[in-house]
Write a structure and sequence with these properties.
This protein is an alpha+beta fold and 406 residues long. The protein folds into 3 domains: 77 residues, no CATH class; 209 residues, Thrombin, subunit H, CATH 2.40.10; 76 residues, Roll (Pdz3 Domain). The protein contains 5 helices and 26 strands. A 6-stranded antiparallel beta barrel has the order 6-15-16-19-18-17. The chain has a 6-stranded antiparallel β-barrel with strand order 21-22-23-26-25-24. A hairpin with a 2-residue loop joins strand 24 and strand 25.
Length: 406
């Protein structure tokens, strides 16, 4: 009898320990905010965790999404935590994979280097005296907006050495400083600043929405090559481009697609942000096949494909493996780690190369994300961003346009 009691006690101990462990795992792994599609059951962090109520009701016709708080339970018995559930219509987009050219013009001009000016009385640095730093955006001078290099040069040369009120943006904050150009040894007034007002490059289109005409690419921001700062966008164009060749990636060196711009403009650029570049297509092919956008909890480790263009033959599917899913990663651009497994792609490029950023990732017939970065120590591996995060950025663009129109 005592032996039976001891065995039963041991069983109970391990059972309670297992339940407590599952509760702890569930509390840590299940996010506080989740999105589910209409008619979907909430099934996050394993089948053991189920909602108190299944999400299976239709949305109100005048709303795109609904929200409520629900209790998530283990085996529908033991409370794990409460979570905010957003029920949304399933989104559908046309996957990309074709390269495009980016012409981006900054909002203001970016300071990329601060030099000294040679004057009759010696070398002086107006920028350092004024407190400027590399990466600062010069927005206006004496109340006049500055968007081009030649505009700022004209202001300096016509200043006659008088102090100028300069409005700058640094770290997302607007500041005002006093900047005084100095007379150089050639009798012209200069500021000693190296500045940039535009950039260009190629990337890959991730997807476009047939209804709104919005498209997304890159999966990360366009940053200044010297300062690493995001280039604030005042305007830009997406243009047609073709791949003319490829420098293969090797250990320690990222490869690169060689692209050639053409004169055809395919759309305007509106946003350059953490989740990519966004714009509106001039013409949308409504006959193109759409795919559903996966919710975060639907993305799984395992086999997948990317669509990318690495030669003159256009977009093609290549095999990859999603090795890790980081749904809660706050950096947005690094929610997924992927590994190229397709021998043909490795033979052509060595793995992930510059210009492939934005290549859509397809899993189980759904758009789950886009390629963003390559690992320099192994160019067959890299990061990706979740498609749902990119879709949310695009929807905010549409909402902003509607608000402006009203």
């Amino acid at each position: 009898m005592r032996k039976c009691i001891r065995v039963f006690s041991v069983i109970c101990f391990f059972a309670v320990s297992a339940v407590m462990m599952l509760l702890l795992i569930g509390y840590v792994r299940i996010p506080d905010v989740m999105t589910v599609s209409e008619y979907d059951h909430l099934n996050n962090a394993g089948k053991a965790y189920v909602c108190q109520a299944l999400v299976n009701s239709k949305l109100k016709p005048d709303k795109n999404e609904a929200e409520y708080i629900t209790s998530i339970k283990l085996f529908n018995v033991f409370p794990v935590k409460k979570a905010k559930i957003t029920v949304t219509h399933r989104r559908y987009v046309v996957p990309g994979g074709n390269v495009f050219g980016i012409r981006l013009y900054t909002k203001g001009v970016m300071v990329i280097r601060i030099d000294e000016v040679t004057t009759p009385s010696g070398n002086l640095s107006p920028g350092k005296i004024a407190g400027l730093k590399e990466g600062d955006m010069i927005i206006s001078v004496d109340g006049v907006t500055v968007n081009r290099n030649k505009e700022l040069s004209a202001v300096f040369s016509g200043s006659n050495g008088k102090p100028l009120k300069m409005q700058i943006e640094r770290g997302g904050q607007i500041k005002e400083i006093v900047f005084t150009p100095v007379k150089s040894d050639d009798s012209t007034y200069k500021g000693g600043l190296w500045i940039r007002d535009s950039t260009a490059g190629i990337g890959t289109i991730s997807w476009y929405d047939q209804t709104s005409g919005i498209f997304a690419g890159l999966g990360h921001a366009v940053c200044d090559v010297d300062t690493g700062e995001i280039m604030p966008l005042s305007g830009g164009e997406a243009v047609e481009a073709t791949v003319s060749g490829c420098y293969k990636g090797t250990t320690g060196n990222a490869g690169e697609l060689c692209g050639v711009f053409s004169s055809g403009v395919i759309g305007k650029l509106y946003v350059n942000g953490n989740t990519g570049v966004y714009g509106r297509m001039n013409h949308s092919d409504v006959s193109s096949e759409t795919v559903p956008v996966a919710l975060k909890q639907e993305v799984k480790e395992g086999t997948a494909q990317i669509i990318c263009t690495v030669d003159e033959n256009g977009p093609k599917y290549y095999d990859v493996e999603i090795t890790k899913v980081l749904v809660s990663d706050a950096r947005n651009q690094r929610n997924l780690t992927i590994k190229i497994t397709d021998k043909n792609l490795i033979d052509k490029t060595g793995g992930i190369v510059q210009g492939m950023s934005g290549s859509p990732i397809i899993q189980n017939g759904m758009l789950v994300g886009a390629v963003t970065h390559v690992f320099l120590d192994d160019c067959t591996e890299g990061y990706g961003i979740l498609a749902e995060d990119m879709i949310e950025t695009a929807e905010n663009i549409v909402k902003s346009e509607i608000k402006k129109a009203s």
